[in-house]
Amino acid sequence: MNRTATPSLRTRVVATVVVLFAVLLVVVGASVDVVLGQQLRRDLDARLTDRADRAVELVNSGIGPEDLVQALQGDAIRVRVTGADGTVYGAPGNGPPGPDIRPATPAPPPGPSNAPPGPPDPPAPPSDSLEITKPLPDGSTLSLLGDTTAIADVRQQLRILMVFAGAVTLLLAAAALTYAVRRALSPLDSMTSVARRITNGDRGRRLLPSKPNTDLGRTASAVDEMLDALEHAERKEAAAARTARRAEEDMRRFLADAAHELRTPVAGISALAQSLQRDAEHRPDRVGRWSELLVGESARASRLVGDMLDSVRAENTSDLELTDADLADVARRTVDRAALLSPQIRFEVDGSQPVPVRVDVGRVEQILSNVLDNAARFTPPGGSVRVAVGTDSQAFVTVDDDGPGVAEADRERIFERLVRLNSARDRSTGGVGLGLSIARTLARAHGGELICAAGPTGARFRLTLPSLTGRSAGSTPAKRP
Questions:
Q1: Pairwise pLDDT comparison (8 vs 369), residue with the higher score
Q2: I want to staple 297 with a disulfide (CB 3.0 to 4.6 A). Which of 8, 265, 371, 414 is the partner?
């Protein structure tokens, strides 16, 4: 896995800005140096030109070469006048004037001389010095030499000053940038602090950026979204774990209850089989009764095993064979079958209008059969079971009985597997507590629901299923009891 580069953002920002600032100072300093040097040279050149023009005016006024030299030289300007006869006045050779400027004297004639040697020539001017040579009206030649040493000194001092000022400026800029960047990136410190609190267990804390459209705001919003997703995933995982634990506990309880329920008929079958084996020859008069009891216990065990298998299969929605059907017609057929099995109970059906649904007809009949069987077991002889079929936002079937009803605290428990209530409703019923559990599981497999509520005289069970037409159906919903 590649590691993410995480350099110091503060250091990078400060270093980058300081380097850019230094480059800018260098460019500005070099530009100032070049421009100033050119300007000083232009000024010196203009002064040389002015003095050359002035020399012409002085010669025309009759001034001599020696006075002309005295009048023109100075301010880093050396003057030399070469007369028509070759006499040189002013600075000898090409050297610049020294601090003590003396009047020019005629050059001695060539030839041997015993005169003492004069002072040595001053040092040569810089190679970039300016020089103007101009003929004068009296036939002499004027040479003006502009010394650029002062210009070089000024530029050197300016460079030293700019380097020192630039260094101080960079130091101050680095300090100011460090403070400004620290202030600008302080939200990152806050984000880091919140992230650490979340890591330490404060899962509900969020960054909540005040300006979500900025760079830091978008980053904080993305972090909050990530934390929300993680928290949602944790909740789903915890819920799934709880559901798995509950399912495991339900399965263990179901197996324990099933074993307990099967123990009685299996024990009875075993005892009857032993009696037949042991006493069949000595008690032939009891063989018929024992055989009848053996068949009954076997049927009871078979019915219990069948109910258990139905309870498991009901959870598999892939086994449903969905077809279009009329729920009212399905309810009438199921009620007719229940009436044949319980002739001592009066069954009433209110469902004259068709209720179109898309269901597994056999499974819906199983749901209604279980509910009607439960109602018939708890309705006293001569009582009635009332069935109503209709549709509102969903298709529904309600079953009301004349039994003792179900306490509000037990209206959910009766749908659990192998649960039988310790109440008058469970006296002498012979059930094992799987019928209603199977019925609710099948109802939910269809996308519907089965609930228990208080009825007018006893218990009310209400089955709801998705309707093909809902409120837009052309038929009039049956009146709900």
A1: 369
A2: 265
What phi and psi values does residue 220 have, to the nearest 5 degrees? -65, -40
> What is the four-CA torsion angle of 436, 442, 446, 451, rounded to 10 degrees?
10
Task: Report which secondary-structure segment, H or E, holds 270.
Answer: helix 215-279
Measured from the Cβ of residue 237, the count of other Cβ atoms closer than 10 Å reads 10
**C-alpha to C-alpha distance for 96 and 86, rounded to whole angstroms:** 20
Q: On the CB side of 221, how many CA atoms lie within 13 Å of its CA?
A: 9
Q: Which of 13-27, 49-63, 289-303 has the lowest mean pLDDT?
A: 289-303
> Rounded to an integer, what distance in angstroms lies between the CA atom of residue 383 and that of residue 26?
108
Strands 384-391 and 346-350: parallel
pLDDT at 367: 92
CA dist., res. 222 & res. 212, Å (int): 10
**For range 395-423, the mean pLDDT:** 83
pLDDT at site 326: 94
Residue 422 binned pLDDT confidence (cut-offs 50, 70, 90): low
75-130 pLDDT per residue, tens: 778 899 998 888 898 864 444 443 333 344 444 444 444 445 544 555 555 566 78
Q: What is the pTM of this model?
A: 0.45
Across the beta sheet with 77-82, the strand order is 88-90, 77-82, 141-146, 130-135
pLDDT at 407: 87
Q: Can you say whether residue 202 is alpha, beta or left, with left for phi > 0 and alpha for psi between -120 and 50 degrees?
A: beta
User: Rounded to whole angstroms, how far apart are CA atoms 377 and 345?
Assistant: 10
